[in-house]
Amino acid sequence: MWGWDEEVSRENDKKTYLSFSADVILPPTDINYDTSKPNEPSRFYFNAEVNTDSKTGEISLIDGTVTVKRDVASPAGGGGRFWGIFNAGGILAQFRYCGEFLMKPTTTTSQYL
Questions:
Q1: Nearest CA-CA partner of 96 in 54, 44, 48
Q2: Which residues, listed in sequence order, are joined to residue 63 by a DSSP beta bridge?
Q3: Is residue 50 within 8 Å of 80, Cβ to Cβ?
Q4: Distances in whole angstroms, Cα of residue 72 to Cα of each of 42, 46, 77
């Protein structure tokens, strides 16, 4: 798992979200599998709603969305990363929506906490 960040919604609900990422090695049958980078992990980004129990102060993650970052190909085609005279590799990218996830509290404590 990579870095994380806490964000507060700008909407009226002012909900708190936890954003974090994880590297996942996908099987070739997965729709998000990148054929140009076989056996290389894909970084997935998670955005989960945080729930804090007002009585106990217990914090839990409720649910959220999953996205994956993909480089944007050059308009010249061919999958190149050159836009005009500069290399845009790693700079120009889009986050593709992969789906949603649900979470539930667990009574098991981790030895790593």
A1: 44
A2: 102
A3: no
A4: 15, 21, 10
70 Cβ neighbours under 8 A, 6+ residues apart: 34, 93, 94, 95, 96
Q: What is the pTM of this model?
A: 0.63
Q: How far apart are CA 63 and CA 110, in angstroms?
A: 20
Q: What is the pLDDT along the chain (113 residues), one digit of tens a residue?
A: 667 888 888 886 788 888 888 888 889 898 878 888 888 888 888 888 888 888 988 888 888 888 887 766 655 554 455 555 555 555 666 777 888 887 776 665 555 55
Whole-angstrom distance, CA of residue 45 vs CA of residue 3: 10
3-state secondary structure of 82: strand
